[in-house]
């Protein structure tokens, strides 16, 4: 890989790690975070609900435990589309 590819891979990996670490508290106020976690979150936290595997709908409840959110999944999908096109990405590319 060349330097640009290395940097792109590093940025995407960093974004996924940040998403996984921050997903458990996304949209929460500092007060809500402190109440739920007893202070600042400084690492991976457990799922929102202990029974997240059977909770429905699953998406709002499976944040935490080091899992990426839909943000990373959408980024991955866009990269896949763009990499296959090797040209300007437009709405039609995303739809395909």
Short recap of the structure:
This is ADP-ribosylglycohydrolase. The protein has 96 residues and is mostly helical.
Which helices and strands, and how do they pair?
Blueprint: H1 3-22, H2 30-37, H3 70-85, H4 91-95
Structural class: mainly alpha
Helix content: 40-55%
Tell me, briefly, the overall form: elongated
Described by strand count, sense and barrel closure, the largest sheet is: none
Unreliable spans are none
The fraction of residues assigned to DSSP E strands is: under 5%
Cα gyration radius (Å): 17 Å
* Amino-to-carboxy terminus distance: 28 Å
Strand/helix succession: HHHH
Q: Count the domains.
A: 1
List the total number of helices.
4
Query: How many individual β-strands?
Result: 0
Describe it.
This protein is an all-alpha fold. It has one domain (3-95). The protein has 4 helices and no strands. The protein has helices at 3-22, 30-37, 70-85, 91-95. The chain is elongated, with a radius of gyration of 17 Å. The protein starts with a helix and ends with a helix.
Features:
elongated; Ribosyl_crysJ1_sf; ADP-ribosylglycohydrolase; 96 residues; single chain
């Amino acid at each position: 890989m060349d330097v640009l590819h290395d940097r792109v891979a590093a940025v995407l990996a960093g974004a996924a790690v940040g998403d996984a670490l921050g997903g458990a508290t996304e949209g929460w106020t500092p007060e809500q975070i402190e109440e739920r976690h007893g202070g600042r979150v400084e690492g991976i936290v457990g799922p929102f609900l202990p029974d997240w595997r059977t909770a429905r709908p699953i998406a709002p409840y499976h944040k935490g435990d080091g899992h990426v959110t839909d943000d990373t999944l959408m980024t991955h999908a866009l990269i896949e589309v763009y990499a296959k096109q090797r040209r300007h990405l437009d709405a039609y590319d995303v739809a395909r």
